[in-house]
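User: two proteins, same treatment. go.

Assistant:
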Amino acid sequence: MNYTSVLDTDYKLYCDCAVSYAKVDDPKGMPCAHYHEDYELYFLISGSRKYFFSTQIFTIQPNQIMLIKPNEPHQVNINLNIPYERYVLYITPKLMSILCKDFPSLKHVLATPFFNLPEEAFKKAIKLLLKLRDETTLQDSLSNDYIKAILAELLLLIERNNTDFLSANKKDLRLQNAIDHIIANYHENLTLDNCAKIACMSHSHFSREFHKTTALSFKEFLNRIRIDNACELLETTPLSITEISQNVGFSTESHFGYIFKSIKGVSPTVYKKQLLKTKP
């Protein structure tokens, strides 16, 4: 999903890899979503963190790992201010492609955004992360090969030991039900009140919790879902602008054009022309 976000490059790669550690006693949420150009594996050692990405709510606990793909916007819940300790592993798409070619089973890892490891397996994973960090610091003639070998072992360890268990509290599940409803019915006349009822919340409570979790208002989220789908129709169908605006839920073409340009920076017509220019 493409919503307002910023590129985060607050890490330094060595041999297409980086390991970051943090222990935070007074955590803050993100004012807006951010993204990376690389794969991010987030290993939580202690505390609790709530993320929203790929239209899904994830609350990560100790011994659990999240995989966030390149250029995938993600948002930390502003109000989950629980002290935490974590490692983050960054891997470039180039290196990940090499690893998947050498070890085809790793492709299953890339298809899973959330991993739950037994305590002993998680400890082994952290030891491998520390080895990786040492190699990115040592930087001798063999570091590149060592890094690839350690990364392969780490990812295979995650694949072998994942119990595929995702925990969520009742409030998150109710919000997720509303988000799923928006994704499935974005083309209909959706209202905040309708979605609040699906989440079993009052109008005001739902509005607050929705914004806390997604960093977007209900209307902003709905519009971005509609525009994402409009872009897909522009790319894959011969439908007219008027037909597309109706298909994705806008009452008038003028309103569709206004919202489209506010999100994409160009009108639907210009967007379509740009697509045609890039086609072989």
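Protein 2:
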Amino acid sequence: MKIAVISCIHGNSEALEAVLLDIDQQKTESIFCLGDLVGYGPDPNAVVDKIRSLDIPTCQGCWDEDIVEGVNACECHHPSLLAERRSEIAHKWTNEQVNSETRAYLAQLPLVLRQDNLCFVHGSPDSNHEYLLPEINAFTALERVISSNADVLFCGHTHVPYVRTLDSAKIQIKVSSADCSASEKTFTTPVKRIINVGSVGEPRHGRPNATYVIYDTDTEQVTLREVPYDYQKTCAAIIEKGLPPIFAWRLAKGLEYAERAEDPTHICTR
């Protein structure tokens, strides 16, 4: 069975429509969405309406959470201070635009979705604010997949697609008891994978094209899809609706525009 996995649409209805058309042409049997339906882009309500109308299983992204709960005004769930400041501007605008139906839909989204040996999250199984970057150390990566109780962990949040295979992994643990004695145990896990599906509405892989993933559950084949669309129309809408022009610039370039934190795996513990 072929499934499509999308993420990080960020109010970009032009990109979403192009990706849905491409998914239809690839003849996939189902679609999963990893959240961040709103934020940064000009059409938050239209995106949510589309996802709802197609009854696509969707987990809650960090932006979806922040629109419901209120923006998390701490640096640690952003890749940088500059990104945090821009996020606050976008949050204020989006919060004023979303209607009551959109807000109610975002509020009831689950944090995790599962199907057989597959797990779907926005950031990580620990938090939808955590960045699982491709260079994350192998132990942390493996722990995140194991904690999801799955063989394949699908995530988004970073806006950069990648596939990482963790094979022949050995984990050594030391257990200390009350009498100060300690025992060590080593076990080997089967092959695990992290598949980051990138971003439909705000790609950061160096091109403006929308990205998503097709996964074949029978062959375990992963296909990273890149879909061109009329991004200039979205850029024009961003400026027309009063959002910061830098949002249009980075969408057109397919790039983030901020320094990166030293520890991007760090998350808020609120």
